[in-house]
Design goal:
The chain is α/β, with parallel strands linked by helices. The protein has 2 domains: 315 residues, ABC transporter type 1, transmembrane domain (ABC transporter transmembrane region fold, Up-down Bundle), CATH 1.20.1560; 145 residues, Rossmann fold (3-Layer(aba) Sandwich), CATH 3.40.50. 63% of the residues lie in helices and 10% in strands. The strands form 2 sheets. Strands 6-7-8-3-9-10 form a 6-stranded mixed beta sheet, with helices on both faces. A 4-stranded antiparallel beta sheet has the order 2-1-4-5, covered by helices on one side. Strand 9 and strand 10 form a beta hairpin. Helix 1 packs across helix 9, helix 2 packs antiparallel against helix 9 and helix 5 packs antiparallel against helix 9. It is elongated, with a radius of gyration of 35 Å.
């Protein structure tokens, strides 16, 4: 899987693949698409007939009888065709509007859902700012592509074909030949130069995403920037990306001048040759003034949209480049997927068992080695060990964020690799060590555990987590916003909200990953008492650093280097005088060292 940090320009582009990816979303509105195309054709037919009315009007007014008769029918016909072209054009846009907006909405939703469906490995590697900018540009690209490709490129190509046929059937063959050569030269020149220019656009996109990623990352870590007085350093890093973007933007703009001049030169030469040919026909008596007016009108109708076609083609290519980034997100397949025919987890008692589980983030980074243990239904098992021993990896594997390399993990004798991920995660609740909250109200963050919960249930969960009184003391109470990633709250307050959220979810299996690490001793004891009450009828896995918080566990596992080196109850482990006893004595010494003296 390609990291999102890698530039897309390093991979081959496939515009047709991008377009094919969009077609199913458009074709969901087949009747509207067909109706819009019918209106498109009718509008073009009306436009094509207008020069014929103009020719007949000029020829009629050029005769001696002009004073006696006014070509009223021809004038009305000309006006009717102009009105019809406008009417069908507006109808086309109105009918197709829902198709465009619905496609944007459906694709954006699909990408959003797909991102949530990707594995934890992808999200640990991605860059949030770059991904959000890719989605934003891709959505705009869909709108431009649908409107301009269908309603500008296709109609222009249709009009070119009709005009060439009309000139070939009614006038000297050279009119059709010159028209065809001019159009072919214009299109070929536009394609070649635009493809050359696209590398500047793709470079701009990559640098834009990187700059946005850097800016968002810096702002999310605002406090760290302030702590180290690195505002100027962050500004320089951000400006370094903007400087590279500026260089690519300048190259993009200057190359545009070359493209515009070349297109204008081709059109000028083609129109001049056709008008000379038509004028010579009038002089020789082979054509009327009306014929000259008709050909000139066709040339204006043809080359004006053709000139616009160059702009549209450039923008379509830009849109495809933008959409390619967004659709590439859909081509990232989740590392963890439900197996065909996977059934929902049936939780009866909630017993958990790890059988000879092996796991590594790569061949050179093995985390767990042959880990086996069981958490009987309704019991509490704690895992302790030094940092990097593999404790938190157990919770990630139980949630099936990763696929294990060997062994099995079972809940009520059901292998979690054979059940649906949704049902598995509904059965498990976690209070993580690093609590991240949504930038919304406290009530919203607690209710996230069960979005349909009543206000009474939310308050009851907050009381259990010993945070209700604090919330009520705030000016806006439960409607108080917590800020980006919960930065307006202390670490302890965030953890208590996380505890309330998990209490509200009320799953059968609980995981406490350093759940009280950010609390002071007084708050810790109060919450531990509440957590014991919550966990009384639940299967509980506690990942702990403070050994004093897990002395009541039914079994304690001591991990080191991804292996379980000791196991047993608190007193039994102390009696072994092993690693657990050493950790216990060390923590007691640390606590005594922090006792204040007079």
């Amino acid at each position: 899987m390609r990291s999102m940090a890698e530039p897309a320009a390093d991979t081959p582009r496939n515009d047709w693949k991008t377009i094919r990816g969009l077609i199913p979303y458009v074709w969901e509105h087949k009747p509207r698409v067909i109706a819009a195309l019918i209106c498109l054709v009718l509008a073009k037919v009306a436009i094509i007939t207008m020069p014929w009315f103009l020719k007949d009007i000029v020829d009629h007014l050029s005769t001696a009888e002009v004073i006696l008769t006014l070509p009223l029918a021809l004038l009305l016909g000309y006006g009717a065709m102009r009105l019809a072209s406008t009417l069908f054009g507006e109808l086309r846009d109105a009918i197709f509007a829902k198709v465009t907006q619905s496609s944007i909405r459906r694709v954006a939703l699909q990408v959003f859902k797909h991102l949530h469906g990707l594995s934890l490995r992808f999200h640990l590697e991605r860059q949030t700012g770059g991904v959000s900018r890719d989605i934003e540009r891709g959505s705009r690209g869909i709108s431009f592509l649908l409107n301009f490709m269908i309603f500008n490129i296709l109609p222009t190509l249709l009009e070119i074909t009709l005009v060439t046929i009309i000139l070939f059937l009614n006038y000297d063959v050279w009119f059709a030949i010159i028209t065809f050569i001019t159009v072919a030269s214009y299109v070929a020149f536009s394609l070649i130069v635009t493809e050359w220019r696209m590398r500047f656009r793709r470079t701009m996109n990559d640098l834009d995403s990187k700059a946005n990623t850097r800016a968002i990352d810096s702002l999310l870590n605002y406090e760290t920037v302030k702590y180290f007085n690195n505002e100027d350093y962050e500004a320089r890093r951000y400006d370094a990306n903007l400087e590279k973007w500026q260089e690519a933007a300048v190259k993009n703009q200057t190359s545009l001048g070359l493209l515009n001049f070349g297109q204008g030169a081709i059109i000028a030469m083609g129109m001049t040759a056709l008008l000379i040919l038509a004028s010579q026909g009038v002089v020789n008596g082979e054509m009327t003034i009306g014929d000259l007016v008709l050909i000139n009108a066709y040339l204006l109708q043809l080359f004006m949209p053709l000139n616009f076609l160059g702009f549209v083609y450039r923008e379509v290519k830009h849109s495809l480049a933008d959409m390619e980034k967004m659709f590439s997100l859909l081509y990232n397949n989740p590392d963890v997927q439900d197996k065909p025919g996977a059934q929902d987890l049936q939780v009866h008692h909630g017993a958990v068992r790890f059988e000879n589980v092996a796991f590594g983030y790569g061949e050179k980074r093995q985390i767990l080695h042959d880990v086996s243990f069981e958490i009987p239904a309704g019991k509490k098992v704690a895992v302790v060990g030094h940092s990097g021993a593999g404790k938190s990896t157990l919770s990630r594997l139980l949630f099936r964020f990763y696929e294990i390399n060997g062994g099995r993990i079972l809940i009520d004798e059901q292998d979690i690799s054979a059940i649906t991920q949704g049902s598995l995660r509904r059965a498990i609740g976690i209070v993580p060590q690093d609590t991240v909250l949504f930038n919304d109200s406290i009530e919203y963050n607690i209710a996230y555990g069960r979005p349909d919960a009543s206000k009474e249930d939310i308050i009851a969960a907050a009381r259990t987590a010993h945070i209700h009184d604090f919330i009520e003391s705030l000016p806006d109470g439960y409607n108080s916003t917590v800020g980006e990633r919960g930065l307006k709250l202390s670490g302890g307050e965030k953890q208590r909200i996380a505890i309330a959220r998990t209490v509200l979810k009320n799953p059968r299996i609980l995981i406490f990953d350093e759940a009280t690490s950010a609390l002071d001793s007084k708050s810790e004891q109060a919450i531990l008492k509440a957590l014991r009450a919550v966990a009384a009828d639940h299967t509980t896995l506690v990942i702990a650093h403070r050994l004093s918080t897990i002395v009541d566990a039914d079994e304690i596992l001591v991990m080191d280097g991804g292996r379980i080196i000791e196991r047993g109850a608190h007193q039994a482990l102390l009696a072994q005088h092993g690693a657990y006893k050493n950790m216990w004595e060390l923590q007691k010494q640390e606590q005594s060292d922090h006792i204040p003296t007079d």
